[in-house]
């Protein structure tokens, strides 16, 4: 608030600076036809132009789109990548997935903060830069990673951090930083039916048009294709329900909000198999009777945006998108919307809310998106991988696809493998592969635990590695994180708990407060105040949140934690300070601020319990 | 089949299209709730009305009543869950009942008594939430907000003003008002708005009337909420129907 008022006082109302800003905002609003459903895109572009979203800016946007100002502010404050206070010319966000932590991101972040003389989360005194952590950026196979002004930088090293600090201090624009920092590898380690498809752009689409909508839906049904986002809903049922639903318009949405910690397969599909994805979207549009589609691209993958837009334009010119595709009378076009840092937008109804310019809070269901989706019209929301597979099926047929995988889980699955493995990257395996086979392929001889659906699914211990990856045994959206025997599973649990507390949308009580309680309980253990009572409390939160939560986030947020409590109990027991109840409040720690202010750390500045522990220590040694 | 379902073993009639909550309220049956109100669109966020329908958890305020449904409501399992939800709400905000002028008229407090909540159980979050006394007729004490969005809905659906919105995400969720300064005085809010009446807790407080009704003679001092709310709500639903 102080910063804001200081900043505002620098601006003279009606000044030239103000009118330039107003003109910029007006241009952006006009480009989006002053349409409120485009608010997330408008906010991003205005923030790019203005540096941050000031109270006056939000008012101007609200006026421009004709929405109540409070609703604009509500959207702006929901997304992590929007800031309603200034955070500097440089915004550095370290990816904080557990895999980034295992690769040393915390030391790197501390080091950068020290070099720039700032505290995480706060802007530097000179208003130049801020450094903070963000949820997994999808670069777990080439971490530690960060976002510099929302551009992805991979493979961080202490040397890169040194140089980055110099570049920032010398005010070198992020676009002029060493180009190899921004390089993102595909890291495809195993190819199967999809990654070895051998099809030309548009080939699958032509095959689908040949089959006609009914024939195409028949093939999808025969293939028994199930959604690849993790829930495994039958794609043919989804498409048919959507096709049959009445509406003014039908919509196809490609869910590219790949936010599950540890997953990055959609990144690779979008980078190197984009034509298959677009073919799949066109095919879905053809099947359900839609002429418009959206790609909801997660904000973390902003570096892909221009490239994907260019490719869409090329396809339009080649007759593979837009009006009268392939001269066959079918018209379908695609628009890309960029997210802004919210895991919950991977949930389909939250994604649709976001597409409509609102905070990404899941809707009450039913009605489901297939009947009441985008703008309350019939909408099918499919995962990137599902759409690419639909393209494959359009060419090769349902029977062929059904011959791959298991009876209940047909086809292949892309696995994003990261963590303690020799060869992190993308592995395409037929469903039914065992966890052990995946570990063998990735080079993981000394594995303690594997999380099989990111932070939101099971955590398997070594005696379960014979289990099969399939909807009927170990379901997965594709995030496989591997932890060797040197890893502390308590820290994994704690990282996940903080992730969910950060990403809960806040709509329902059990998830909003429950995730925060869990994060606090794990911190209590980490701070050496834990007791068995706290572990029981986590079980209690698990029982409450499962069932009582509004959506999948709350319902799955405690699964990995409960698994870890059951299977890796010693990692938690080690943290217990007392076998009985132990309060979270620490009287002696409460004095630490007073000690810091007075520069005292002698025994007299501590409570009696700690006297003996601190006796004889020099002040510097006694610092926490 | 009759248009009725079983609520804790008792027959409850419904009109097609009604939710379990609407039908129960019309029949004078109490299903605990905070964010539901008969006059506004169901929200389904507080989760206090979580019931078990055919063995599965569902919110009564968003689930359509269906003939032959078996709905568990006042069971030991559900009461325990509701108590925990209430405790979570109590520690999330700053709820100091003895000093709150809404005490005795507060739905959160009354529901907590009804569910047998004896302590907040969890460690308090002690959030830092400023009070807004800018408006001449109404005080906003955000410390007690439970994010039910009743004021948001009342202002939008009845007053046509959109004075309130929920902002932020997760545990940082908070109520905001529709002005650049963030002050209620700078909105078009009026003490006669429906939104001024609807807060179930002590966020939206009319000035100068705080203790006109002494503690001890207030709504839920007379009767527990299960008896009080049902009478009120049943009247409302009947009128609306």
In terms of topology, how is this protein built?
The complex is a heterodimer of chains A (624) and B (241).
Chain A: H1 2-10, H2 16-31, H3 39-50, H4 55-65, H5 69-78, E1 90-95, H6 98-102, H7 105-116, E2 129-134, E3 146-148, E4 151-153, H8 158-169, E5 188-190, H9 203-223, H10 235-244, E6 251-256, H11 265-272, H12 274-288, E7 292-297, H13 305-317, E8 322-325, E9 330-338, H14 348-355, E10 379-383, H15 384-396, H16 398-402, E11 412-419, E12 425-430, H17 435-442, E13 447-451, E14 459-461, E15 479-484, H18 489-503, H19 509-526, H20 532-548, H21 552-556, H22 559-567, H23 569-573, H24 587-590, H25 592-598, H26 611-614, H27 619-622
Helix pairs in contact in A: 2-3, 2-4, 4-5, 7-8, 9-10, 9-12, 9-15, 11-12, 12-15, 18-19, 19-20, 20-22
Chain B: E1 4-7, E2 10-13, H1 20-26, E3 50-53, E4 56-59, E5 70-72, H2 76-92, H3 107-114, E6 131-132, E7 138-141, H4 150-158, E8 164-167, E9 174-177, E10 204-206, H5 219-222, H6 225-240
Describe the protein in words.
The complex is a heterodimer of chains A (624) and B (241). By secondary structure, chain A is of the alpha/beta class. Chain A has six domains: 2-78, no CATH class; 90-185, Glutaredoxin, CATH 3.40.30; 190-402, Rossmann fold, CATH 3.40.50.11540; 412-487, Ubiquitin-like (UB roll) (Roll); 490-573, NADH-ubiquinone oxidoreductase 51kDa subunit, iron-sulphur binding domain (de novo design (two linked rop proteins)); 589-622, no CATH class. Chain A is built from 27 helices and 15 strands. In chain A, helix 19 runs antiparallel to helix 20. In chain A, 53% of the residues are buried. Mean pLDDT of chain A is 93; it is low at 1-10 and 610-624. Chain B has two domains: 4-81 and 224-240, Ubiquitin-like (UB roll), CATH 3.10.20.740; 97-212, Alpha-Beta Plaits. Chain B is 25% helix and 15% strand. Chain B has helices at 20-26, 76-92, 107-114, 150-158, 219-222, 225-240, and strands at residues 4-7, 10-13, 50-53, 56-59, 70-72, 131-132, 138-141, 164-167, 174-177, 204-206. In chain B, the strands form three sheets. Chain B has a five-stranded mixed β-sheet with strand order 2-1-5-3-4, with no helix packed on it. The mean pLDDT of chain B is 94.
């Amino acid at each position: 608030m102080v910063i804001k008022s200081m900043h505002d006082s620098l601006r003279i109302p009606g000044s030239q600076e103000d009118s330039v800003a107003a003109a910029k905002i007006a241009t952006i609003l006009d480009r989006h036809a002053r349409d409120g459903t485009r608010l997330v895109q408008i906010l991003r572009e205005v923030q790019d132009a203005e540096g941050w979203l000031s109270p006056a800016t939000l008012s101007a946007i609200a006026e421009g789109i004709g929405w109540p100002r409070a609703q604009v502010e509500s959207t702006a404050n929901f997304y992590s990548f929007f800031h309603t206070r200034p955070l500097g010319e440089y915004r550095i966000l370290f990816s904080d997935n557990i895999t980034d932590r295992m690769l040393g991101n915390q030391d790197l972040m501390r080091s950068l903060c020290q070099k720039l003389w700032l505290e995480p989360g706060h802007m530097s005194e000179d208003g130049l830069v801020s450094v903070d952590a963000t949820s997994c950026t999808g670069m777990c196979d080439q971490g530690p990673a960060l976002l510099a002004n929302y551009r992805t930088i991979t493979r961080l090293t202490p040397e890169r951090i040194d140089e980055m600090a110099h570049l920032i201090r010398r005010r070198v624009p992020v676009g002029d930083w060493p180009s190899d920092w921004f390089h993102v590898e595909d890291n495809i380690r195993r190819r199967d039916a999809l990654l070895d498809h051998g099809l030309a752009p548009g080939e699958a689409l032509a095959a689908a048009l040949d089959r006609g909508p009914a024939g195409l839906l028949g093939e999808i049904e025969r293939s028994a294709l199930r959604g690849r986002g993790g829930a495994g809903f039958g794609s043919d049922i989804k498409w048919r329900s959507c096709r049959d639903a009445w509406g003014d318009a039908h919509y196809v949405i490609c869910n590219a909000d790949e936010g599950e910690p540890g997953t990055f397969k959609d990144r690779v599909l979008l980078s190197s198999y984009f034509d298959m994805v677009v073919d799949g979207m066109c095919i879905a549009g053809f099947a359900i009777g839609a002429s418009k589609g959206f790609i909801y691209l997660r904000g973390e993958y902003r570096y892909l945006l221009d490239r994907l837009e260019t490719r869409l334009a090329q396809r339009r010119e080649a007759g593979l998108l837009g009006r009268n595709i392939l001269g066959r009378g079918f018209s379908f076009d695609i628009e890309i919307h960029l997210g802004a840092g919210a895991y919950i937008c991977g949930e389909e109804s939250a994604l649709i809310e976001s597409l409509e310019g609102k905070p990404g809070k899941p809707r009450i269901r039913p009605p489901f998106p297939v009947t009441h989706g985008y703008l309350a019209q019939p909408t099918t929301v499919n995962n990137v991988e599902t759409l690419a597979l639909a393209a494959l099926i359009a060419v090769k047929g349902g029977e062929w696809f059904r011959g791959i995988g298991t009876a209940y889980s047909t086809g292949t699955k892309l696995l994003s493998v990261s963590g303690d493995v020799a060869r992190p990257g993308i592995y395409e395996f037929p469903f039914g592969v065992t966890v052990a086979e995946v570990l063998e392929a990735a080079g993981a001889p000394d594995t303690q635990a594997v999380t099989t659906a990111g932070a939101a699914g099971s955590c398997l211990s070594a005696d379960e590695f014979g289990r099969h990856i399939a909807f009927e045994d170990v379901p997965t959206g594709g995030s496989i994180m591997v932890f060797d025997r040197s890893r502390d599973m308590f820290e994994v649990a704690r990282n996940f708990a903080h992730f969910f507390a950060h990403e809960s949308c806040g709509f329902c009580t059990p998830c909003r407060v429950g995730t925060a309680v869990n994060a606090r309980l794990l911190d209590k253990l980490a701070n050496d105040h834990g007791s068995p009572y706290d572990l029981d409390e986590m079980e209690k939160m698990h029982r409450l949140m499962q069932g009582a939560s509004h959506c999948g986030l709350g319902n799955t947020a405690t699964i990995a934690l409960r698994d870890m409590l059951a299977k890796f109990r010693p990692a938690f027991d080690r943290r217990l300070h007392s076998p009985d109840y132990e309060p979270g409040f620490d009287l002696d720690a409460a004095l630490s601020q007073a000690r810091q202010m007075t520069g005292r750390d002698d025994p007299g500045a501590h409570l009696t319990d700690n006297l003996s522990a601190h006796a004889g220590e020099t002040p510097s040694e006694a610092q926490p | 089949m009759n248009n009725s379902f079983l609520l804790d073993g008792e027959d409850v009639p419904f009109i097609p299209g009604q939710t379990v909550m609407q039908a129960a309220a019309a029949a004078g049956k109490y299903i605990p709730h905070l964010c539901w109100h008969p006059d506004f669109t169901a929200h389904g966020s507080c989760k206090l009305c979580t019931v078990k329908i055919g063995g599965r958890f569902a919110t009564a305020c968003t689930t359509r009543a269906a003939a032959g449904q078996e709905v568990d409501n006042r069971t030991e399992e559900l009461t325990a869950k509701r108590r925990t939800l209430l405790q979570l709400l109590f520690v999330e905000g700053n709820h100091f009942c003895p000093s709150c002028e809404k005490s005795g008229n507060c739905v959160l407090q009354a529901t907590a008594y009804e569910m047998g909540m004896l302590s907040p159980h969890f460690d308090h979050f002690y959030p830092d939430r400023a009070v807004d006394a800018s408006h001449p007729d109404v005080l906003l004490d955000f410390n007690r907000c439970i994010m039910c969005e009743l004021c948001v809905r009342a202002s939008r659906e009845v007053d046509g003003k959109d004075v309130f919105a929920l902002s932020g995400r997760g545990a940082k969720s908070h109520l905001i008002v529709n002005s650049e300064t963030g002050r209620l005085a700078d909105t078009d809010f009026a003490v006669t708005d429906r939104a001024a009446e609807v807060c179930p807790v002590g966020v939206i407080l009319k000035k100068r009337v705080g203790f006109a009704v002494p503690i001890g003679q207030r709504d839920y001092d007379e009767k527990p909420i299960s008896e009080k709310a049902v009478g009120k709500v049943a009247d409302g639903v009947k009128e609306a129907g």
